[in-house]
Fold each of these.
Amino acid sequence: MIQSKIAEHGTLTFSMVKADAGLCSALGMTREAVLNEVLKAELKGRGGAGFPAGMKWSICAQASGPTKYVICNADEGEPGTFKDRVILSRYAEHVFLGMAICAYAAGASYGIVYLRGEYAYVLKRLEESLADLRRENLLGKSILGLQGFDFDIGIKLGAGAYICGEESALIESLEGRRGAPRNRPPYPVTNGYRGRPTVVNNVETFAWATCILCRGAEWFKSLGTERSRGLKLFSVSGDCTEPGVYEFPLGITIGELMAAVGGIDAKAVQLGGAAGRCVPAVQFNRTIAFEDIPTGGSVIVFGPDRDMLQVAENFLEFFCNESCGQCTPCRIGNVKLLEGVRLLKAGRCSMPYLNELVRLGESMQIAAKCGLGQTSANAFISIVNHFRREIMGRVPA
């Protein structure tokens, strides 16, 4: 039986791994060996997209240029996600030293933590942690006596814009401009912050990198599934008796997760926040993994009495407010979907028009400029597909 590990009880794997041991291990290896260890571990980005971290680090390492950067995306703005806040509050050194390991492997000299504006209350604690690491020579000049390896980290506060969770919009914000996605290619690994090669990874990704260098790639690979290695943190909220931050191996079924969090009577679960998918109870045998249903960590539980049309409306209101407005599919598409949901609630949306709205959402998934715009219709489409009978009660024949 899979046992849950709840962050509030202090039982996350991070609490059993010394962060400085991970950095010491890395600095005792060549840069190529560190890259190979992360590649061998098959660590995929824990922000949701799942791009292999070792591949991203390797591309940056191979990119030309005298200056390279490492950026930690701590702009945890996805509704229902709060596990990065727990990591930063309790295991900040794992994140910071994971960034240092990445910097050593990729040849970077400076790091930035882009911290969500609403998390300003942890800023003082994070600055104190950085100061401690500098005193211990785990950051700064000639780290741990290794001549030529200089790396330090600064923290920049965001301003509460959801779009800055997208890595190129985050970089635009760091450079003093309005946060909006860039055209790609080129990608940040070759042309990122200030036009320099830049690695951008999520808070959790850097923390697991520290654990991998401490315990080894084989340890990490022994957990999870063949295509989704390792452990994952989940932020669980909504209609369940035990909300919180949980740690499980990837590959856990939704049903197993619901049993652990006290959501066994749930009618649906939203995986991945507002940009994720709504999964009905009949599909709770599906696995949370990159080969089935991936997630950045948000798990919102909907009980039997939840109005799923209201859920769709809430998510679409969020996207209408948070769209950067750069591309038409996202800027206008979300408004039209929201209008359609409100027509449905009023019983004034015909079935043919509902089908047109679904097709609009499918077009947005293809045509929107960035990943956030491409996923903004996900919840609406999945709710219509899985709860059509509930919705049809409000639609005229």
Note: The first helix runs from residue 19 to 27.
Amino acid sequence: MDKNKKKIVIVGAGPGGLAAAMLLANKGFAVTVFEKNSQPGGRTSEIKLGDFRFDVGPTFLMMKFVLDEIFVECGKRSEDYLNFIRLAPMYRLILPDDRYIDSYEDREKMRIELARVFPGNELGLDKFYHYEKKRYEALMPILQGNNQNIADALKSKFLKALPYFAIGHSVFDEMGRYFPSALARLTFTFQSKYLGMSPWECPGAFGLVPYTEHAQGIYHVVGGLSEITRQMAKAAIELGAEIKYQSPVKELLHKGKKITGVLLENGENVLADEVVVNADFGYAANNLMPQEFLKKYSADKLKQTKISCSIFMWYVGLKKQYHLNHNTIVFAKDYKKNVEDIFRGNLTEDGDISFYVRDTSDTDPKLAPIGQSAMYILVPVPNCRANINWQKQKEKIRSFVIEGLKQRLGITDFEENIVVEKILTPDDWHDDYNIYEGAVFNLSHNLDQMLWFRPHNHFEELENCYLVGGGTHPGSGLPTIFESGRIVSNLIFKKYQKKD
């Protein structure tokens, strides 16, 4: 290793850490990534159960251009590493009244679907594209900026974008601009789930999320979304980064507020010029960072933050195929009550749940043996602040899912065809994946926890310490997490004024 190179340590080989590793290695820094697991990815890694493979977390990719740009900036092409499949339809929605609507990127197909299911609402589709494109174009440069200083609010681009934040309006309100039917709006607001929020609470600014899906499409990656981080790790190593697996970090080393490196669980001290933290932010603040210097994000202050919901995950290997759509979303019969219960910390007693199913049987033969299927089932549930005994309650949720599959999707023989299965509850996310309070979508994305009000990429409470991942700016979701890695790499590059 060149002794003159500035040394960068990255804690965690998740998508944000790997994006930073690729970009910084390409810029000539000496990059070492320490990952506690034996594979990269964190929540974007893989679970193997016998001959079945499952993504731990994300199951489709939106805003693909962000990932493409990161590879290009490193002199590479994403398509040389990954095989992308554009999904059409993007997903099937089973509505509370049991009608279904297929959601398409193709505008005319989407118009036909709206007219079929919600006659008259198709008239608002062009207006949706027109206005939400303006919102997207106004807000994306702000989300892609580093937003280290509230003075950014005085810049002209922010002032011009201010109306598009729709302050005081939820994303459900904003979709009412185009679609008078409340059920039609669900087609364009369920995406608030990606942020771990309710459509009735998620800020209207996030109308740009359904727009990006409908304007740019969503993708499956052959082999699963975990292939993204696996191939990013490969590219980072090719660019000169070093990734050390099964090397958990115990704490950040420091001299006063200045972070000087990391202490590994094995007792080894590793010094660095800069440290990038890709661990879950709440976990890192509570467990890795020197507590005496944390004021804004002390343990007590973290307890007062708004955090996302959690998820009950059921990974199921089945000895037959059901040939569902790649993505199927089933809304509870009383969807609003279901969402409100989740955020009040309540579990349903009547089994009226919302759930998401990914069935790759017809899309990707690599995830299950021939003629069999790897089913991924997600149920939004309260986070650990609800103090639910998940050891007792997980079988109840499992039974609710089986009944939901039967009643809502017509699958009557699901349980008898199970070969292997694994369940993750909020407690498991907290204990095994080091996720603060099991809130898998991190800090909530309320406007008072966005932009400069979110933990900064160049962390404001410590020196030489940077943050990537869903708990920092720009927020949760794969493309924004990739973007956090790019923002951090640019901040470090600028500090040292390195030349390509």
Note: The chain has three domains: 7-84+222-304+445-496, 103-217, 309-432.
